[in-house]
């Protein structure tokens, strides 16, 4: 973006810069076009824009009142929504699964670009995600008796370990320099409460 915030240039090669946020310096990464295609995949429909499941009835109602939609969407309350991560009126599993669906499933699903058979779509039953109780195919990150998700032990779960790293083994694998602590805690709680043999 320019200084006025009125226009932006599309970067061909990406850019990394140091940005001051609230008195702290963070590494801010603008992915290259090639980097973008690592997540914006054909299996995910390329566009990873916000969906009705992500918005919720209040936001859909607001957008409808501003005539944002080209077609009539009907009553915003008719749509299924992902639970908000902090909304404890929803079970922990549904909130953790919503996070995985929004942030991971664009790559980790049947036919996706990753060299695994994970399926993190929200509609996939938990037992069919190929995630819980499954040995990792791409290394253990030094975890003894590691599983992708070891029920009852986040510390021995490769998924949780990757989420707390910001190195070449991190998930997400690009454009992130800060661990999302609330999400890490949420997913860790979900793993810790999973019943054996889930």
Structure description:
Helix content is 26%, strand content 7%. It is built from 6 helices and 2 strands; from the N terminus they run E-E-H-H-H-H-H-H. It has helices at 33-39, 52-55, 57-65, 92-103, 158-163, 181-193; strands spanning 15-21, 24-30. It starts with 14 loop residues before the first strand and ends in a 5-residue tail after the last helix.
Overall spatial form: globular
N→C terminal distance: 48 Å
Could you spell the SSE succession in H and E letters? Answer: EEHHHHHH
Q: Please tally the helical runs, counting DSSP H or I stretches of 4 or more residues.
A: 6
Largest sheet: 2 strands, antiparallel
Write the layout of secondary structure elements.
Layout lengths: L14 E7 L2 E7 L2 H7 L12 H4 L1 H9 L26 H12 L54 H6 L17 H13 L5
Antiparallel strand pairs: 1-2
Helix pairs in contact: 4-6
